[in-house]
């Protein structure tokens, strides 16, 4: 058996070891969030299981486009936990993870398929959901602010709309983090990108109202009010989770009877849309959202371009 053949008959655990190395790279060198690493682990472990079952002892070095095509057929026919086939956009997440993994392998001198050869099919563009100002007002006023928990929820909703924070950024906030005099605070976003976040007067008012009601000495800005009180480590166990924040938003979307199935990310979209509609420039909004590339921010321009709106109003015959 020649050396090249030996290299392509690696033990099955080799792929798992390489995946673990890649995940460590994401954590240590790329500073990816735990959520991102969890998702990549799921996508790549799915590939590893399929590869082991269908390719036997072949190493990742023998991966070719024909094998990737078979994997894509598998994904297209895979049934999720709800008994549904994976959406095209979800299938793409698995392939994006595989391409990133292959890129890592090549960077570290492993022989494998060139990831640029794997094309991603175009997916249907998803409609951009956002709330109008009147809808945001209905959402935030659905909170019963006579109770401390309702005050917390109002502060959460106001802060999300005021700042465009991601849910992962919101849950990490501590009480001493916001400079109320300057109406700003710093966050570390995706990929370790730092940015300054600005707080509107209205949001600052409700966060301060909430903090006045707090009698605890817990460090987190937003805490839970159910379950056992755990005071250790500055009340870290009292911190609201991302899932809890999502549930809070869903609760008030129902109470406000909004026609949009809004999420935390909908409020982020609403933040950006509100700024652009009122004349903010795209580059500034990019900075406030913490987008690495302006192309990511450009998804908002087709619905917020004031000049196009004015052209339509001035020249379309239906307006005369």
General description of the model:
The protein is mostly helical and 320 residues long. The protein has two domains: 3-117, Orthogonal Bundle (DNA polymerase, domain 1), CATH 1.10.150; 133-312, Orthogonal Bundle (hpI Integrase, Chain A), CATH 1.10.443. It contains 16 helices and two strands. The chain has helices at residues 3-7, 13-28, 34-55, 65-77, 88-107, 133-140, 148-163, 167-171, 201-213, 232-235, 242-255, 264-277, 282-289, 294-297, 301-304, 306-315; strands at 184-188, 194-198. The protein has a two-stranded antiparallel ribbon. Strand 1 and strand 2 (194-198) form a beta hairpin. Helix 2 (13-28) packs antiparallel against helix 3, helix 3 crosses helix 5 (88-107) and helix 7 (148-163) runs antiparallel to helix 9. It is globular.
Question: What is shown here, in short?
Answer:
This protein is 55% helix and 3% strand.
């Amino acid at each position: 058996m020649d050396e090249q053949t030996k290299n392509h008959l690696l033990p099955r655990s080799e792929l798992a070891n390489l995946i673990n190395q890649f995940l460590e790279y994401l954590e240590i060198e790329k500073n990816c969030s735990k959520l991102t690493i969890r998702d990549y682990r799921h996508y790549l472990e799915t590939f590893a299981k399929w590869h082991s079952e269908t390719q036997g002892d072949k190493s990742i070095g023998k991966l070719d486009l024909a094998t990737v095509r078979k994997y894509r057929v598998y994904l297209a026919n895979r049934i999720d936990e709800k008994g549904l086939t994976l959406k095209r956009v979800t299938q793409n997440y698995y392939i994006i993870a595989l391409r990133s993994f292959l890129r890592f392998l090549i960077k570290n001198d492993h022989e494998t398929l060139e990831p640029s050869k794997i094309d991603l099919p175009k997916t249907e563009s998803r409609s951009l959901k956002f709330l109008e100002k009147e809808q945001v007002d209905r959402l935030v006023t659905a909170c019963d602010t006579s109770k401390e928990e309702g005050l917390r929820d109002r502060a959460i909703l106001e802060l999300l709309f005021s700042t465009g924070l991601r849910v992962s950024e919101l849950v990490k906030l501590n009480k001493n983090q916001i400079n109320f005099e300057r109406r700003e605070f710093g966050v570390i976003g995706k990929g370790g990108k730092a940015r300054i976040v600005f707080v509107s007067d209205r949001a600052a008012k409700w966060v301060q109202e909430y903090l006045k009601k707090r009698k605890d000495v817990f460090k987190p800005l937003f805490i839970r009010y159910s379950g056992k009180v755990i005071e250790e480590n500055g009340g870290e166990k009292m911190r609201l989770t991302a899932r809890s924040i999502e549930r809070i938003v869903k609760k008030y979307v129902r109470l406000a009877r909004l026609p949009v199935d809004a999420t935390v990310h909908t409020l982020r979209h609403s933040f950006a849309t509100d700024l652009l509609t009122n004349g903010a420039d795209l580059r500034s909004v990019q900075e406030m959202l913490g987008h690495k590339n302006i192309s990511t921010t450009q998804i908002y321009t087709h619905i917020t371009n004031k000049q196009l709106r004015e052209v339509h109003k001035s020249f379309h015959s239906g307006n005369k």
